[in-house]
Write a structure and sequence with these properties.
The complex is a heterodimer. By secondary structure, chain A is α+β, with helices and mostly antiparallel strands. Helix content of chain A is about 25%, strand content about 30%. Chain A contains three helices and five strands; from the N terminus they run βαβαβαββ. Chain B has a five-stranded mixed β-sheet with strand order 3-1-2-4-5. In chain B, strand 4 and strand 5 form a beta hairpin. The chains are: A alpha+beta, B alpha+beta. The interface between A and B is medium-sized, with 20 and 27 residues.
C-alpha cells in the first residue's frame, strides 16, 4: 500500500534579493526591503514529502534514519548558518525561496530510497513555497 | 467539491519490532524505536473528507457527527493504549506512522455519511507525519 511520509527540517540562513539584470533603483523597486544592501535572515523550514509502498517487513515507506542522514549531509550541512547568496547554486540565480525550493527538490531527487513527491519551504510563518517537479503541487 | 478537515489527538505507546528478525537486526533497522519497553507520542490525526455543500445546512458533513465518528472509531481505541499490545490491527503489523495512517483509513472508510474519505494524516511529532489516500 502506497503512503506519503513527510519530514520537516530547520535551518537559519541569510540572503539578499538582487539581480545584476536590474540597476540599483530597479532592484530597490522590485525587491523592496529584501534588497537592503547587507542582507537579512530567516529561519527556514523545509518539509520533504516522499512516497512509496509500505514495506510489509518494516512498516515503513523508507528508513527515517536514512532520510535524516541524507538531509543532514545534503541540506543542513550545506545551507545551515550560511549566506545563501554566497553558495554556488545562487551565483547566477536570485536567492528567492522559489529558487531555493527548486534547488532543494533537485537535491532530494538523489535520495533513492523513496519517490520524492514534493518540497515545501516556509520562509516565515506567513510565506511558504511548494515545488513538485512537473507535477502540480496542489494535488495534496 | 469541498474538502473539510477535522483534527483529533491521542496519546499512545508503541515500539517497532519484527518477530521474523533477530534482536540485532531489529536494533540495526529500528534503532531506539526497537526498545521492547516501548515509548510514546502525542499523535495528531487529521481526517480530510470531500463532498458537496448541502444547500440547506451549508455543511459538507455535520462536524459534530464527524467528531463522534473519530472518537468512536479511533480515539477511544488508541488513546492511552499501547498500540502493539492493545490494538488488534497491530498484533501482526508494526505501528509505524505509515501503518497507523493506513489502519485509521480502514477504520473510517465507509463510516462517514454524505462524504468521501480523501486523506488521513497522522503526525507522530510536529516534524514527522504520514499521509494515506487509500488505494489509488
Amino acid at each position: 500500500m502506497k503512503a506519503h511520509l513527510s519530514r520537516r527540517y530547520h535551518f537559519p540562513a541569510s540572503h539578499r534579493l538582487n539581480t545584476e539584470a536590474y540597476n540599483a533603483e530597479q532592484n530597490r523597486e522590485v525587491f523592496g526591503k529584501c534588497n537592503h544592501p547587507h542582507g537579512h535572515g530567516h529561519n527556514y523550514t523545509v518539509q520533504i514529502t516522499v512516497s512509496g509502498n509500505v514495506d510489509p517487513e518494516t512498516g515503513m515507506v523508507c528508513n527515517l534514519a536514512e532520510l535524516d542522514a541524507f538531509a543532514q549531509t545534503n541540506l543542513i550541512d550545506r545551507f545551515d548558518h550560511t549566506n545563501l547568496n554566497t553558495l554556488d547554486c545562487f551565483r547566477e540565480l536570485v536567492s528567492t525561496t522559489e529558487n531555493l525550493t527548486i534547488e532543494i527538490y533537485r537535491i532530494f531527487q538523489d535520495f533513492t530510497a523513496a519517490h520524492l513527491e514534493r518540497v515545501h519551504v516556509e520562509e516565515t510563518s506567513n510565506n511558504s513555497f511548494d515545488y513538485a517537479g512537473n507535477t502540480d503541487p496542489s494535488f495534496i | 467539491m469541498i474538502l473539510l478537515t477535522r483534527k483529533a489527538e491521542f496519546s499512545s505507546a508503541h515500539f517497532y519490532w519484527n518477530d521474523a528478525w533477530s534482536a540485532e537486526e531489529n536494533q540495526r533497522v529500528f534503532g531506539k524505536c526497537a526498545n521492547r519497553n516501548g515509548h510514546g507520542h502525542n499523535y495528531t490525526l487529521e481526517v480530510t473528507v470531500g463532498g458537496e455543500v448541502d444547500p440547506v445546512s451549508g455543511f459538507v458533513v455535520d462536524l459534530k457527527q464527524l467528531k463522534e465518528i473519530l472518537e468512536r472509531e479511533v480515539v477511544s481505541v488508541y488513546d492511552h493504549r499501547h498500540l502493539n499490545l492493545e490494538v488488534p490491527e497491530f498484533a501482526n503489523s508494526i505501528p509505524t506512522t505509515e501503518n497507523i495512517a493506513i489502519a485509521i483509513w480502514q477504520r473510517l472508510e465507509g463510516k462517514i455519511p454524505n462524504a468521501k474519505l480523501h486523506r488521513v494524516r497522522v503526525y507522530e511529532m510536529p516534524d514527522l507525519f504520514a499521509d494515506y489516500y487509500g488505494e489509488r
